[in-house]
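Quick one, T. Sequence first:
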Amino acid sequence: MRLSVLDLVPVRTDQATGDAVRASIDLVRAADRLGFERYWVAEHHNMPSVAATSPPVLIAMLAAATERIRLGSGGVMLPNHAPLAVAEQFALLEAAFPGRIDLGIGRAPGSDPVTSVALRGAAGRGDDDIRLFPQYLDDVVALMGAEGVKVPVPQ
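C-alpha cells:
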C-alpha cells in the first residue's frame, strides 16, 4: 500500500502561522523518512485556522526540506489563478525538484463567497466564470511541457 499525507497546515489557537509552517516541515520530513510516497498541500483562503493559502510556495519550502517524497497540490483552485501563472509556477518547481512535483487542480472557490469575489475580482473574473474551468484546464496543459512553459506569440 502507498501512503500519502494531505496537509492544510492547520494553525492552532496557541500558534502563529510560522509555527504551523514549521510543524508542516517537521511532518513532511517525518513522512519522507518513513517512506510515504506523496505529501499534498491544499489551497484555502481567509481561514484563520488554515495556513495553506499558496500551494506553490508551500511545495517549494517542503521540497527543499526533503530528499525523495513527491509533493503536490491537492489542489490549486484554478478559477482563482491565471492558467499561465499556474503552468509557470509548477514548471519551475519541476525544474528545481525533478520527478517530485505533482499538480492537482480543483475548481471549488477554496474560501467563503466574499473572499472568492476578492480573489477572482483581482483576476478580472466573476463567480460565473466557473463555467470556463475546462478551458482553464486545457490552457494549463497546453502551456506545460518537458521544456517548460510555452507561450504562443501572435505573428
